From TrEMBL:
Gene3D superfamilies: PucR C-terminal helix-turn-helix domain (1.10.10.2840). This is PucR family transcriptional regulator. Residues 173-279 form the CdaR GGDEF-like domain. It comes from Microbispora bryophytorum. Belongs to the CdaR family. Residues 25-162 form the RsbT co-antagonist protein RsbRD N-terminal domain.
Amino acid sequence: MRSRTESEVRELLRTSAAGLLERLPELADELVRRGRESDEAYRMTVPFEDHWKSTHEGLRIGITAILQPRHERRDVAYAQTVGRRRAEFGLPLDSLMRSYRLAAQVTWNGVIDIIGDQGQERLPALLRSATHLWHAIDRQAVAAADAYRRRENELLGRTNQRVNAMLDALLEGRADSAVAGVAADALGLPEHGRYAVVATRLPAQPDRVHRPDEIGGLRFLWRMRPDLEMAVVHLGDRELDDLVAALTPVVCASAGVSPVVDSLADLGTARRLAEVAMRTCSGTAPEIARLDRRLPAALVVCQPELAERLADGVLGPVIASPDGGVLLATLEAWLRCEGSAARAAAELYCHRNTVFNRVRRIEQLTGRSPARPLDVVELSLALDAVRLLPDT
C-alpha cells in the first residue's frame, strides 16, 4: 500500500511540475506582485527587473528539481546565489524568508489548480506531495539564509575595514578636501561640522574594552591604537562640557579632549591636541583633560627640555630640601585654592598658620613670592613640570 502511494506521489508531482512549468511566467508575476505589495523592503531595495528575473529562474529551477534525481538538482545552489545577492542589495533577512514562504503558498496553490477535483482516491498522494513540496522549499530557504549571513558578514568586514581606513586617514592628517568628502559619505557624517577628538589610555586589559557608539546623545567613532584609543565625536550643537559629562562614566583611564574643529579635514590637528591634553593628566586616578583648560600644562609637556630647566631653576632648592614633598604639596594646594590659606589647610588637614609658614619657606628657597603675578606663573609652570615630567 505504501509503495503504491509513493508511486502515486511521484506521478502527481511529475504532473504538477509539468503544469507549473507551462504557467511559469504567470506564477512569477503573481509571486513578485504579492511580494512587493506586502513588503516595502523589496520595493525599496530590489529593482523590479532583478526581482522578476530571479523569481522566474528560482521557480523554474525549483520546479524542475521535482523531476530530477537529488544529485542533479540545482535548487539549493541557486537559493544560495539568491541569498548572497539579497544581502548585497541590503534586503533584510526576514524579507527574504517571507519570500520563500510566499513562494511555497503560490506553488502549492498552483498544484491544487492543476490537480483539481480528481476524486478522493488521490487525497493521500496529494497530502504526501505537499510534504515533499514544502520540505524542498524549506531546504532552499535554509540554504539562502546561510548564504545571506555569510555574505553579510563579508560585506560588514569590508565596510569596517573601509571605515577604519577612513578614520586613520582623518586622524593622521592625511585627508585633503577630496578624501574628507569621500570619508563623510563612508562614515555617514557631514564634511563640515563641529567635531572633537578624544584620546584615552587603554586599561590593563584592552581586549575587554567596549565603547558604545552613542553616549549621551553624541555619536562616537572609536579607533584602537597600540597604546591608546581614539574617538571622533560629532558634536552638532553640543558643547565640550556635554562631551566630558558623557565620557565620565565610560572611560576608566585618563583621557584628553581636543578643542572643537570645524571639519573632518581638521581631525588630524584635533587628534594631536587631544593627545597633548591626555599627557597633562598625572597620577593613577582617571581624569578627563580638556586642552582649552590645560594650556599652561600643555606648553610644559610639549617642551620637556625647557620645562625641565624651569623646574630645576625654580623649584630645585625645594625638591632638594628634606621637606620638599610636603612643600610641593602645599604649593599645589595653595595655587589650586587661589591663595586661600583656609581652603588649602582644609585640603591638607593642617592649620592655616602651617600653610602660611610653608609658603614663606617656599619663598625663601625659590626667591619667588606667590603674591607677585609673574612669580606665580613661574611657580605654576615649574610645578606642572615636576608633576608631569617623570625625570624632574
